[in-house]
Amino acid sequence: MLRAREAMMLSFRPILTKYGFTEQQWRVLRVLSEKGTSDAGQVAFDACILAPSLSRIIGKLEKNNFISRFVDNKDGRRINLTLTPLGEEILSKIAPDMDVVYKAIQKRYGAEKLNDLLNLLGEVSEWRGR
């Protein structure tokens, strides 16, 4: 699975480098784009990033005005994250480059195989070793 992930990332890394993002920063932006405003802990889980690493990533993304953080109104201990307009803008700029890669992957393996793979990976990611 790690080799497959690494093989796929070879196509995406040049795009991320072009726009100045690390893989982890990209995962945070994508999670916020897909799910909207979210609790930092949930973002860490969804982006598969450890909390200490997420703190550093949040700081950098916030400094560059791609995201903002704020204390949850209902629970003062909880930090929420949201994309800023600049964050949304950069995602829309990167999307066409990413779409080219996604389409190339789909062309290479076919829609049915890709769908089966995504379903299987979803099942595997939910497995807890029981």
Explain the overall architecture.
With about 130 residues, the chain is mainly α. Helices cover about 70% and strands about 10% of the residues. It has 6 helices and 3 strands, in the order ααβααββαα. The longest helix has 25 residues, at about 85-110. The model has no long low-confidence stretch (mean pLDDT about 90).
Short descriptors:
single chain, 130 residues, mainly alpha, Arc Repressor Mutant, subunit A, three-stranded antiparallel beta sheet, 6 helices, 3 strands, 72% helix, globular
Task: Output the radius of gyration.
Answer: 16 Å
Major sheet attributes: 3 strands, antiparallel
And the CATH topology? Arc Repressor Mutant, subunit A
Corresponding CATH architecture: Orthogonal Bundle
Strand content: 5-15%
What's the arrangement of secondary structure elements?
Blueprint lengths: L1 H18 L3 H13 L2 E2 H8 L3 H13 L3 E5 L7 E5 L1 H25 L1 H16 L4
Antiparallel strand pairs: 1-3, 2-3
Brief description of this entry?
Helix 5 crosses helix 6. By secondary structure, the chain is mainly alpha-helical.
